[in-house]
Sequence to fold (429 residues):
Amino acid sequence: MKLFLKNARVIDPAQNTDDIMDIVLAEGKIIARGPDLKAPPEAELIELAGLVAAPGLVDMHVHLREPGLEYKETIASGAAAAVAGGFTSIACMPNTEPVNDNRSVTEFIRRKAAEADLAHVYPIAAITAGSEGKRLAEYWDLKEAGALALSDDGKPVMDAALMRRAMEYACSLDLPVIQHCEDKNLSACGLINEGYWSTVLGLPGIPAIAEEVIVGRDILIAEYTRTRIHIAHVSTAGSVRLIRDAKKRGVQVTAEATPHHFTLTDEALAGYDTNYKVSPPLRSRADVEAVKQGLADGTIDAIACDHAPHARTDKEVEFEYAACGISGLETSLGLSLGLVHDKTLTLAQLIARMSLQPANILKIPAGTLAEGADADITVIDPALDWTVDVQSFRSLGKNSPFHGRKMKGRAVLTIVKGTVKYDGRAPRP
Ligand code: DOR
Ligand code: ZN
Fold:
């Protein structure tokens, strides 16, 4: 099957391209790109004037819930949400039931993803057995089965000595370690950011330092062992500063931020709406500004949405008992384009943080529209006005505080390995 994409504004940060071009796709690859190409015979023509063709977007931090929690999300429903949100590659966290700490779970995820045949799904395996923080999982086995990174997301590794061993072992296998930075003693029974709003609302707080002490500790371990560390969902100004300083010293640290952490502040909790309950919590205005600054100056490498689908029964309970997380795959690009609208980033910078840079961290074959590359392409209409409606989500998780929010810009066509997996273009007259 051949596709001929005509007149797109091709933004390919890997090659510093931002030009009107045509792209020819065949056999799952990009076989030609350039201005005014001749349509190859038998190719299906797709006119893209006025639209942006970007490398397929990559979200390196999602939760797919299968095996074990299929009432929240399945691999197929999560992959469908991914392509509807413009993502051609996603990496899924291991906090399933059972935890992905052994090769049979990793293989199961890959099999289910192949059956769904939508986005590429890359399993992230656990750092420790059962993510219990006591002993390391079998990294060699996990890598061989197809895991491409390690994390105990949601359950940070609290034992510094174990974290050191994990980073050394992972480094020898070239597997990135992704840490959810939260000192459990400092966050204790906290529910929202510690500050003005936790005081006003009478909810126990999680201080910024709960995140920052682990960011600082893991940067020091990475520096000492000369290994690399990836900091998940950076939420505080202090974390941004620590990462910026470490990068200046040459420490191999990378980081990501979520759309909800750079869009919302803890003031959103004023109505006790559990859709705003996330981990790490929404922070102060100063933290939000620092995260945006970190994205602008490259301290934060990637945008990842921490897609955390939950059922109504998990969220419609007392605040204290409600699950943390936002179903994010279908609003991530729309919210992230807000950074372009408010001039924090150029469109090319945004696309780099949502494709090339996470692809480089995970070392997956994605993030470029070079000739010969896999034909994973996201077509974006940056001017399209739309309103978030959770009932139209492909994700089983309807838990989004962005329901009803007006957005500008979204993915209208998602192509994976040369095949259209999502087509949201308006029907032509
Ligand atoms: O909000 C969150 N939800 N943060 C996490 O770290 C875990 C995630 C989940 O699994 O629901
Ligand atoms: Zn997560």
Q: What stands out?
A: The chain has a mean pLDDT of 97. The two ends are 26 Å apart (CA to CA).
